[in-house]
Amino acid sequence: HGPPPHLHTHLQPSGRPRALVGMLSILCAFAWIAGGGADVYLNNPRGSNNKLSEQSNNVQNDNRLFDSQNNAAAGYQIGDKCNPVCQDGNRNYDENKAGAMQGVMTYYQGSELYIEWYAQHGCGVGHPNLRCQVILQYMTEADNSGLRDGTKRGNQNTAGGQQEPPTEEDAADLTLGQHEPFEYYTACKARERNNGLYTADQQVNDNRGATATRQHPGGNNNANDRHGLECPEERDYYPYWHPSPWHDIAVLTDEPQARCGYYQSESQNVKAKGYCSEPEFNNAEACVAGDGAWKEQPAFEEPPPECVGGMRSRDNHNGNVRNGKPMYYVWRIPDYVSGRAVLRLRYNITTADLDPTALISQDEESGGPASQEREITDQFFIDETFNDRDPSTRRRSIFRGGPPILANDPQADWVNLGNGDEQTRLLQLQFNTAQVARTFEDRTHTFLVRPRPSSVPLGARLVNYNVRGRRGNIVQVYPSVEYDFVPPDLRVEQGTFLHFQWVGSDANPQGNAGNGRQGTDRSNLVQVAARGENVPLPIERHTLLFDAENDPDNAAGRELVDRFAYLDQDSIVTCDPESDDEQATDNCKQLNGASAYFDGGVVEMLQIGTHHVASTRNNDFSNRSQKATITVTRSPWEWYVVLTTTLSALSIVGLAIYLGIAVYAFRRPTSIFFSKRYRPRILRLLLKSETLQAKIEERKKYSRERRERLAASVMLSSAAPPACLGRPSDAGGTVKADGQAEDAQLVDSAEPKTLWDRCLRRLRSFGLEEQRLVLLVYLLLNLVVFLIGFCSHLDMGFQGSMAYPWAKGAGFTLDLNCAIIVLPTLKSLQTALRSAGATREWIPIDDPISFHIHVAGLIMLGTVVHVVAHIVHMSLVQGAPIIQADPLQLWDLSAAELQSGTPIWSQIWDLGSRCAPVSGALVALLMFAMGVTALPCARRGTNRLSKRLGGYNLFWRVHLGWKWIYVLLLLHAPGRLWIWFLFPAMFVAVDRLLLAHRQRPYVVLRTAKALARDVISLTFEQPEGFTYEAGQYVLLGWRGEWHPFTLTSAPEEQYLSLHIRAPNSLDWCSALRHRLLEEAPSAAEAAAA
C-alpha cells in the first residue's frame, strides 16, 4: 500500500491531458490466480469470502461482492434464523422458509468486538520473508443506503447484475447483495487509471478506467471480470487518493515507525479526497483543463486509524501467532457507527526484492546480477519510471537489468556458472510481477449496530462473546475453522457485561462431519469444572451466570442457565425426550429444535473466579473441541480512587501516631515529646489550662534538677587531679607532667616492623597518607558497585540496549553515595569517631566537609550518567515500532514488546513504574539546587545575584530539603535504596535524638569587642544551669542560622566567651560583626539622643 500521488501531466498521442500519479508504492498491486496460497480469512465476525447460502464447501460465485483472491473453499455461509431449521424434508436448504439468510448479528455501540483472522502467508514486524500490511475498515448504510447481503443464490448473483457496465436497474435489485454504491463503481470505471503507478512489465489496459491495475491488468471488460461494484484501483492501493465509502479502523504494518504517520494523515477519516465533476479526469489540473470542476468530498471527521506494528505470524500455517493463537484485533465500536454495517479486511504482501538494499538493486560492480537505470531509494515510493518501456517484448528473454526491477519469471545465469556464456546455466525465478506485491481481501456478512441497552451503564465495559467456525472436520472446513468460542480465553473485570450471541448456517454440505442434524450449525454453552472435563456442572454448582451456592433461588440466573443450555427449544418445538434420531427436529438433546441464531442477551459478570464452558453438541472428544475459559477478576481501582485511598490511609495512620505521641507526652511530661519544641498542639485543645500548666511545671522541675545534677558532676570532675600528673597511661606506663612517657614500649621505632607498615611508609612518600588512601579506596568501591550494577543488568535493556546497564550501574553508585553523604554531617558521629583510638587517622573526620564535597561530586557524576543513559534508553523505546496490543493476553508479549514504541512522555508518567522518571527529575533538580547554592560564590554572597537571593541563608534553606530527597528516592527506587540506607538511617535517627537532648538556652550578650585581624570577642552571661567542659564548642544561632564556635572561657568562670574570625569574605560572620559593632551602637546613640 502506498501513499497518494504527486500529480503531473503527460500528453497522449491525441494531445488530451493525461494524469500521471507518481511516487506510489508497489505494495498493493496483485493479480487473480485461482487457489492462491497467501490468502486471508476472517473467522469472527464470519467472513463470507463471497459465499451466501450455497450448500457447498466452495464458493459458487467468487465475483459476487468483491475480489478476495482467496481459496474458494474459505468463508462461512450467511447466518440463518429459522425456527427450527431452514431445510426441507430432505435436509436440503430451503431459502423460502421464514428466517432464511436472516441470522444477522447485532452489536452495541461502545462494545468490544473481537475481530479474528488468518493471514496465510504471515505478517508482522521483523518478518524475514516479506513486507506486509493489514487494513481493517468498515462501511455503514450511511455510506450506501442499499447496503445488503442479498438473497439470490447460485452463480448469477453478482452485485450490480450480469452486465458490464452494470445498470442502475440491476444495481437496485434487492435480491442481489451490494456493498459499494452503484455511483461509486461507475465513477471508477469512467475515471482514467493512475498512470503513475508501478506496473512492472504488465500490459495494463488504458481503456477501462481505474478498473485496470497491475494485478488486474485487463480491467473490467465484461461481467466475468467485475467483482461486485468494487473499484479495483481503490482495492489495490492504500491510502486511496479519491473518495471511498470505506472508513478506516486500524492499520497493522511491518514498518510502523516509518509509515504510520503517513497512513494516518492520508486516511479519509481525517483528510478530504478530491474528484472531478467530469468523471474521466483523475486530477485537478486535467479536470479544469477539461472544463470540469474539481471538488472535494469532506473527511469523515473520525479519529485517524490506529496504526501499529503487527504481531509477527508464521507463514504457510494459517498465520498463527504465538502459542497457536490466531491474529486478532479488538475493535471498540464507536458511538457514531449505527445501522447496518460490514467489515472489510485487506492483506497485502510483497518481497524484499524491491528494497533499496536488495541484490537486484545493486550494480554488477557491487556484486549484483544486473543493474537498474535508476536507483531505488525507498521501496515505498516506486513509480512508473521503473516500468518496462516495452513489456510485450520482454517475456521469456534473458533478463539483463531493469526496468522493470524484475521481469515476469525472469531467466538468467544468476549464479554466474556459464563462464561468460549467458545462454548456458540459465535458471528461471518464479516471479509473477502481477503478484509482487499482491493484495487479498475478505469481508463479513452485514451486521447491525444498535445503541447500547439502557441496562448497561455508559462507563461499563461491554464485550461481545461469540462462536466461530462451521460444520465439518478439519479437512472439510479448511481453510475455515471448526467450532470454538471467541474470545477463547477471556479475562474481564467484575462488573463487565458480556453480550452472548452467535449464529450458524443451515446450508452446510450434508456430507460434512458433525453431530445433530446434517448441514446445521448449533452451539450451546454449559459450564464444566475444568477444561479437561466434558461433563457439565449441575446447576447447584454453577458460578458463571449466577452464584448458585450462595443464591440458589435466583430465578433469573437459573433461567439463564436453562436458556444457554437448551437454546429456547421449548418455545420452538415440542421436544421428544425419547427421540434419538439425529435428524429429527424434536431431538432437543442434540439441539435440533433450536434456531441457528441465538442471542443470550447482555449478562453482567459478578462472580469472581475462573469459569470453564463447553458446547455439548460440538465438543466431541478426539474429533473436535469447543471449550473456553472466562476469568472474572476484581475491578481495578481508578487512579484517583487509589490516590484518595492512599492519602486517606496515610492521614489516618499519621493522625493515630500523632494522637499516640500526645498521650505519651501527657503521661510522661519529662520526655522529649513534652518539650516546648515537640509538644503536640492538640494538648492545648483537649486539656484544661490548669492541668496543662501543672504538667509544664513538672517538666520544669525535672529540667532544673537535671541541670543541678550535671553541674555537681562537673564540679567534682574539675576538683580531681589532672590526668597527666602521674596517672597510669593506657600503655601501662606513667606519664610525667611534661607528657613524656617513661615506658620504653612507647618509643616509636625508627624502622617499620611489618610489611603493612612498610607499604604505608612508601605510600606516604608519594603523598598518600591514610585519609587520602581512604578516599582512593572509596573511589574504587564506587567503581566496583558500578560494575555490579552494570553486569547484573547487561541483557535487561530494551532490545539489548547498552544504555540500560549504564543507567543501572550509575544508579547503584547513587544508592551508595546517597547513603554515605549524610554521615559526615552528623555531629554526634564525628564526636564519637574522634575517640576511635588508633583507627582515628583512617577516618575522614578532621575535614568532614571535604569528604562530604567529594561524595557530592560522585553523586553529580552518577546523576549525569544515570539521567543521560535513561534518556537514551527511553529514546530507543520511543523509536521502536509500536506492537499490536494483546488485550486478551493470548500471545504472551514480552516486556520489551509491551514497551515498544511508547512515547517518552508516556514512559515518564507510567504509573506502573511509580512515575520513576518524575521522582528522579525532582531528585536531580533538588541536587542541582544544592550543588549550585553550595558554590563559594553563592554561599558567601560574593556576587550581586547570590547576595540578593540570601547567600548563606539560601544555601542553608536549600540543604534543609535533604529529607525530601530521600523520600523521593524511596519512591524512585525502593527495591535497593533501603538496603544501602538502612544503617545510615539508624545513625541519622540516633544523631537527631542526641541533638534533641542538647541544651538550647537563650543568652545575654555582655560585651562585643573588635580585635586585630578581623576577630571579634563576644562575652555572654552564663545561663542558669548551663554546664560545659574545656574545649567544647557551642552552636551560636542568629537570623535562623546556627554555626559552631569553640568556647574560649574556662568552666569555673561565670561567663561564656567566644572569639570569632569575621572577615568580609564570610557572610554570616561579617554580618554579625557589622550588626554588633556598627549598627547596634549607632541605633543606641540615636535612641539616646
The quaternary state of the protein chains shown equals single chain
**What's the Cα radius of gyration?**
43 Å
Poorly predicted tracts of residues: 1-37, 720-750
Distance between the termini: 96 Å
Q: Provide mean pLDDT, rounded.
A: 84
The 3D shape can be described as elongated
Secondary structure elements and their pairing?
Layout: E1 6-11, E2 17-22, E3 40-44, E4 106-108, E5 112-119, E6 131-140, H1 168-171, H2 182-190, H3 232-236, E7 247-253, H4 256-266, E8 273-276, H5 284-289, E9 294-297, E10 306-309, E11 327-332, E12 339-350, E13 411-412, E14 427-428, E15 438-443, E16 447-450, E17 462-468, H6 474-477, E18 484-486, E19 489-493, E20 497-503, E21 526-528, H7 555-566, E22 597-604, E23 609-614, E24 627-633, H8 639-667, H9 682-686, H10 689-719, H11 755-765, H12 770-792, H13 803-820, H14 827-833, H15 848-879, H16 895-899, H17 904-908, H18 916-933, H19 936-939, H20 944-949, H21 952-959, H22 962-972, H23 974-996, E25 1005-1011, E26 1015-1021, E27 1033-1038, E28 1041-1046, E29 1055-1061, H24 1067-1088
Parallel strand pairs: 4-16, 7-10, 17-20, 19-24
Antiparallel strand pairs: 1-2, 3-5, 5-11, 6-7, 6-12, 8-9, 12-15, 12-16, 13-14, 17-18, 20-22, 21-23, 23-24, 25-26, 26-29, 27-28
